[in-house]
Amino acid sequence: MDSINFFKGYGKVNNPAGNQQPASNRRRRILLAASLAVFLTIVLGAMIGALIYESATEPPESEEEQLPASDSGESLKTVCAVTQYLDSCINSISALNDPPKSDPVHFFNLSLQVSQRELASLASLPKTLISKSNDRRAESALKDCVNLFDDSLSQLNRSAELMKVAVVGPAEKLLTEMRISDMQTWISAAMTDQDTCLDGLDEMGSTVVDELRTRVHKSSEYMSISLAILNNLKSLVEKFGLKMP
Q1: What are the strands, taking DSSP E only, across the chain?
Q2: Average pLDDT over residues 54-78
Q3: What CATH superfamily classification does 70-239 receive?
Q4: What's the whole-model pTM score?
Q5: 187 touches 155 (CB < 8 A)
Q6: For the Pectinesterase inhibitor domain, which residue ranges apply (predicted)?
């Protein structure tokens, strides 16, 4: 009996039937687990690497706020955004076909050129209307407009001449707060001259007011653009990451 029991239990000491898997199965499971761990490590590493790259290449929000796009068109939009007439500002300055730059001072210079050209064209209109008018009172008011437009153009020319000197010379010494204040005064005075012209025609009840008013409003709009850029020139220069010239 003892011999029979001995042979029945041969080879199964400490290994009850059904609780032991072949060694080959265990190796396959170990290899599968190891492969899965390697795969997950590679995927996780790739994701972390992508996040680090994105973080390193994306500029901080503060830099994006300070520096507008290098494209001249986008820079012009940034400058014109400080005015009340965004589209008019962009279209009038772009029409000059000036070499592209990303400099607020440059755009201010261009806006002055636009204002000068429009006002120079406007200055001859009262004389033309005088020749067509049979109203002596209206003629008197129009003559006043001629003088006012001349004075207005003189104020703009003073600003333009100062900017030419500032850009060519040691601008950091010439474009001071005092000189900027002078240009603000001159451009504001030029706008006041135009308003005074229209006020005089309104008092006369002249029928030529409507014809002249449209042109004056356009001219005043351009000067308003120049004045707005000038008023914000310092902050714009800082936003572009530049120094006041």
Answers
A1: none
A2: 59
A3: Invertase/pectin methylesterase inhibitor family protein (1.20.140.40)
A4: 0.68
A5: yes
A6: 71-229
